[in-house]
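Now for a concrete sample entry.
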Amino acid sequence: MKRDLASAADLALAVKSMTTLNAGAARAMRATGGGVHAATDVTGFGLLGHLHNMLNASGGGLSAEIDAASVPLLPMAMELTERGAVPGGTKRNVEALSPHVKFGSAVPEPLRVLLCDAQTSGGLLIACDPDRVNTLLAALSREATPAAARIGRLARGTPGAITVS
C-alpha cells in the first residue's frame, strides 16, 4: 500500500483479513471444552515475537517447533517481501528474535522475515491441547474463520526457544 506495490485486489483481500472480527474464533475456542490454554492476536511483534512472549509467559519451560510451510500467508505477502517491502519494525523484530529462533536451512529468507512481520493484523495464535486441535479446526471452519491451520507444537525445552523448519 505504502509503496504502491500491491494490486487493488490484493489490498482488498488484506483489508478483509485485517478487519475480520474474532467473535467466531472465540466461539470456536470455547467449543474445545477447555482445550485452549492461551491465545493472542498477532500484531506488532509478528507471529514469532508473540509466540516467544507466550512461551515465556507460560512459566512452564516451553519451547516451540513451527512448520513454516503451514503458516497461512496472504497471497501477495511473499512477493512483496521479496521486492523489499519490509518495514523497519519487522527488521527490528528479526534482530530481537535472533537469539531465540533457529531457522532450518530450507526456510527461505523472505519467509523468515514474514514470520516476524510487524504489519500483521487480525490473526490469532492459539495454544490448544493436541487432542483437541481437530475439534478447534472444525469449529473455526464452521465459524468461517479465514486461514485456520495447525502450524506447530509446543514442547518442554529451552524456555522461549523456537525452531522453524
Q: What stands out?
A: The beta strands are 36-42, 62-66, 101-103, 123-128, 152-156, 162-164. The longest strand covers residues 36-42.
